[in-house]
Amino acid sequence: MTVKTFLLPDLGEGLTEAELVRWMVAAGDNVAVDQPIAEVETAKSLVEIPCPFEGVVSTLHGEAGQMMLVDEPFISVNTGGEEASTTPEAPSERAQSYREEELAGTQAPSEDTEGDSEADEGSGNVLIGYGTGSAQRKTSRRRKPRTAVGGARAAVQEPSEAVRVINPLVRKLARENSLDINSVKGSGPQGLILRSDVEAALAGSNTDTSMSAPVTETAAQSEAPAASARPEQVAAMGEADSRTGLPVASSQVLSGVRKTIANAMSTSRREIPEATVWVDVDVTKLLKLRSKIKEADGRAPSVMALISRFAVAGLQRFPELNSRIDTEANGALRHTLFEGVNLGFAAQTDRGLVVPNVRDAHKLNAQELSAEFARLATVAREGKASVADLSGSTFTINNYGVFNVDGSAAIINYPEAAILGIGRIIEKPWVVNGRLKVRSVCELTLSFDHRVCDGGTAAGFLRYVADAMTDPKRALATL
């Protein structure tokens, strides 16, 4: 009997833990290659973990609600297909981390190495779709070919240099888009291929990454230690709170997306000296223009997409607001301005507020921005947004008008320099050319990092966007 254990992978190039939401299999179930086996919630999104091999589930190394650590055992599967060895197994080694696995097989064996030496045996560990890279471990029987991703049988290969990739999900992203991973130039240490390298090679295609995972082969271990304890409750339901004396309805440690949101908000308030400016805007002409576009084309960009187009144009005129400030090791402050805009937008989901971002938003027209907003909002609410979808923005828009409120001094999406808020559109009495009329009005607010610019720059940007919304035909003619 052969039991293989694979570890929870780094699901986002640096994330160290994930909350196990639910198992999709149970001990004793048959599983196939790439079959989803669990859902986990990282600090970025909810993702499914696929099984890297087929067999019968032996051990689930955790339970729902538990925080699982990267590079710790996740699931063990009895792959079967081989008779048990008649010689006692040596004590099994702890499953290796992904980076240890990635290095396995990158060294070709020496030509003068003889049969029973350690060098000839190789590592015995196989990454998804890999051979060991050194001679196969010698046994008293013929080994069956290993199963590669997709169920195909991988032939025993000659020793060769393995392509080093930071994460199996990056390798799978390339494969699903028919990209030869060997053709990608890695920008990481010693040529390590990063997710950004694959995305760049895909020429900006919008692709959600799928999860894969490093695998290791160990002897059966029915009682592996759990990755971490379930978040402890401060007080059980119904018990009295020591501070207020009131019964406790619920109490638990923040984790996953909620923990990330809390930390981000605290960091923003702590690190950024922000100020806020606001203005009421007559958007009557903007709404009429949108209606005419819809009549002519059968579809029209959303109001937020039109405002976003004006905002992106405004950032090109006031680039200080499309920037960030970083604190270096020696305490110095570095101000970085960007060419181009990655436009983030706040999206409310069942797991909390997340900020998907439209990359290279400055290259898109209002219709294209509207389509991207709709697509990214959908994948975010379904918990399928990739780490790349939820990071890397340089400026954020928050449409809190959908909650039927007029205004809000939004917290800046750290480490950005500003966030633009859009309030609800309501009819108000408005003076036009000396006469009182009923107009459609909304409030714009801009919270900005006072270190990157003074109030004049922030007011200039906000006034530009407001004027464009008031007279959209004129503004669009100059974009």
TrEMBL record:
EC number: 2.3.1.-
Superkingdom to which the source organism belongs: Bacteria
Compositional bias ranges of the Acidic residues kind: 111-121
Compositional bias ranges of the Low complexity kind: 219-229
Cross-referenced InterPro entries: 2-oxoacid_DH_actylTfrase (IPR001078), 2-oxoacid_DH_E2_comp (IPR050743), Biotin_lipoyl (IPR000089), CAT-like_dom_sf (IPR023213), E3-bd_dom_sf (IPR036625), PSBD (IPR004167), Single_hybrid_motif (IPR011053)
Cofactor names: (R)-lipoate
Pfam families: 2-oxoacid_dh, Biotin_lipoyl, E3_binding
Region (Disordered), start-end ranges: 78-155, 205-229
Bias kind Polar residues: ranges: 78-89, 205-215
One term of GO molecular function: acetyltransferase activity
Keywords: Acyltransferase, Lipoyl, Transferase
Similarity field: Belongs to the 2-oxoacid dehydrogenase family.
UniProt-recorded name of the protein: Dihydrolipoamide acetyltransferase component of pyruvate dehydrogenase complex
